[in-house]
Amino acid sequence: MILRAHLKGILVGAAAAMAVVVVFAIASPAFAQDANVYRQFLGIDSRKLIWFLAQMHLFFGAFVLGVPLFAVIIEIVGWRNGDQRFDKLAYEFTSLLSVAYATTAAFGGLLAFALFTLYPTFMGYMAGLFKDVMFMYALLFFAETFCLYLYYYGWHWLSAGRPFPMLVRRFFQAIGLAMVVAGAAFFFGLFGLEMRGDTRAFITFLYILPTGIGFLLIKDRKSVHIFIGIMLNVAGTGIMMLANSWAGFMMSPAGVNEAGEATAGLWPIFENILATPIAIHRMLGNLAFGGLVAGSYAAVKFIGAKTAEEKAHYDWMGYIANFVAIAALIPLPFAGYYLGREVYSTSAVMGNNMMGGDFSWTFIIQAILVGSLFLISNYYLWSGMTRIPGAERYYKYIKFILFALIVSFAVWLTPHNLPLSGQEVGEMGGSQYHPTLKYLGLMPAKNAVVNLIILATFFSFILYRRGNRVDVVSIRNQGMAAKVVIPLAGLAAIAMVGQYAYGLLTMEAAELDLPADRTQYFRTVGYLLVFECAMGVVAVVLALRDMGRIGQAIYLASTAFSVVLFLGVYGFVVMEQASPFLRNVAVAQFLQLISCLILVTAIDIFLFRNAKEVGKLQWGRMSIRSQYALLLLTFVITMNMGLMGFIRSGLRTDWHIVGIMRDTSQWAATPSNHTMTQMVSLSVLVFMIGIAFMFWLGTVANAKSEDAE
Amino acid sequence: MTDQRPVPIDSPGDTVSGGSMAGVVAKVFIFLLVVLGAFQWVGYSITDMTGGEKKASTGKVEIGPEGGEQIFWGKGRCYTCHSLGGRGSAVRGPNLGQFGEKFPEPIGVRAITRAKERSEKTGEEYTRTDYIAESIAKPGAYVVKGYKNEMAVVYAPPISLKLDEIKAVVTYLQSQGGDFDLAAVTEEPGEITERYFGLIAASSAAGGGDPAAGEEVYDDNCSECHMLNEEGGEIGPDLTGIGTKTLKFLADAILEPAKSIPPGFETYELIDKEGRKHIGLKTDETAEEVTITKATGDEVTVAKSDIKTLIIDKNSSVMPADLNEALTVKDYQDLLSYLVTQKPKSEEAK
Question: What residues in B contact A325, CB-CB < 8 Å?
Answer without folding.
Answer: none
